[in-house]
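User: Good morning. I'm curious how pyridoxal-5'-phosphate would be positioned relative to this chain. Could you predict the structure with it bound?
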Amino acid sequence: MSPPRVDLATLPTPLTRMHRLEAALQTGPLYVKRDDLTGFGVAGNKARPLEYLMGAAIESGADVLVAAGSPSSNFCAAAALAAATVGLDCDLLFPGTPPEPASMNVELARAAGARLLFGVVKTREQLDDAVLDHANALRAAGRRPYPLPRGGATPVGAIGYVYAARELTEQCDHAGVQVATVVVATGSGGTQAGLVAGQVGFGLRWQLVGASVSRPTQPLADQILRKSQDCAAILALDPPGNGNVDLRDCRGAGFGLATRDDHVSGRLALRHEGLLLDDYYGAKAMTLFRSLLADGASTPAVFWHTGGVAAALTALTQGAS
Ligand SMILES: Cc1ncc(COP(=O)(O)O)c(C=O)c1O
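Assistant: Good morning! Here's the predicted structure, ligand included:
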């Protein structure tokens, strides 16, 4: 039985050769998987999980989505838009006070009709518990909440990337490309958990490497493994094991703080391939991509572009990048 799903994304997203980046980096064939082009708001990689999360929310009879993140959160904006399009209310929890200057993602969520609750907690790390507390308060008031952890990183949300893994392989088979290495930006880990479950479940042989941009790698790798196993169980696929999660520490100076190398990555992607990368996710993942290639990673290699358009444009217009 296939899990409930609503249509949000425009799929498949393109897989495109990066000839000019290849020449600049002097490598074998490089490709980009354009999940910045999933076509739902500016949700990027969050469109795929939200299809299954919204499907599950509706099936559970929910009337309000509860989500949380930092003010830069692409996921919060995407969740607010998704909730609006399926007729759910949406409460979003943010730490601290409203950002100054305004964040494009916060304003997008507001425009989508979400209720924005600032200052519920002090730090990002406290948000997942706060979501559960808020959901309990809503339940006590007679509402039917569907609570989500940061990034929507649940086994149900990960299903979107199980099928994305298969999508990439089908595109490569069609183009006669035998992908060796795939790099993706990892925040909450939902995207990587889905890709891992898809890789193992469908017997795909590329090496998947996640760039951890915000959380320490060991506890996050453990969570990714558990979520990928739970996701595989939902789909009755073979479960991933310990060796299937390859996660590298790419936090550098901190979440959203680009290093000199990350700035180079952003500029290379923009000027050679017309790709817009943000400082939170895309630029850090591109830095990992470049460093793996410099260390001899096998090609053809795929850079999985996860979006982040709102943050990238904000940084450009505010002169941060
Ligand atoms: C642009 C972008 N890339 C990558 C990620 C990381 O995805 P995940 O949280 O599923 O690890 C996010 C998460 O919000 C994101 O917004």
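The radius of gyration is 19 Å. Residues 44-45, 74-75, 151, 153, 185-192, 281, 306-308 surround pyridoxal-5'-phosphate (CB under 6 Å).
Let me know if you'd like a different ligand tried.
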